[in-house]
Specification:
Layout lengths: L16 E4 L2 E9 L2 E8 L4 E5 L4 E8 L1 E6 L2 E6 L3 E4 L5 E5 L3 E8 L7
Antiparallel strand pairs: 1-2, 2-3, 3-10, 4-9, 5-8, 5-10, 6-7, 6-9
Length: 112
């Protein structure tokens, strides 16, 4: 298992991963218990419905997103946030280009 990053991380030192469909991800700082991730969406891009055992807290850094968590949906904009409990299906649609900042606990080993 990966132990994590240094305690300081410069944005320019980390490459983006193109996930396709107008979505790209950059893994930021993490250790075994928590992970911080930037995700950028082009307008119309979709974060397809999925679930995982991690708890996820997300900040909408920019843009507007339709966010669905379980059977609830709403539109969130820059400065808004949401939490996804463990094993709950969730998804997003970028209503305009934007960025989400995700925090996961524990770390997403599948991202590494």
């Amino acid at each position: 298992m990966t132990t994590g990053t240094d305690i300081f991380l410069h944005d320019g030192d980390v490459a983006w991963t193109d996930l396709g469909g107008g979505v790209k991800r950059k893994i930021l700082t993490y250790d075994a218990s928590v992970m911080l991730v930037r995700v950028v969406f082009e307008k119309g891009a979709v974060g397809a419905p999925h679930y995982h055992h991690h708890i996820q807290c997300t900040l909408v850094a920019s843009g507007r997103f339709e966010v669905t968590i379980g059977d609830r949906s709403t539109v969130l904009a820059a400065g808004d946030s949401f939490i996804v409990p463990t094993n709950v299906v969730h998804s997003v649609i970028a209503l305009e280009a934007g960025e989400l900042v995700d925090t996961f606990t524990p770390l997403r080993q599948d991202f590494l």
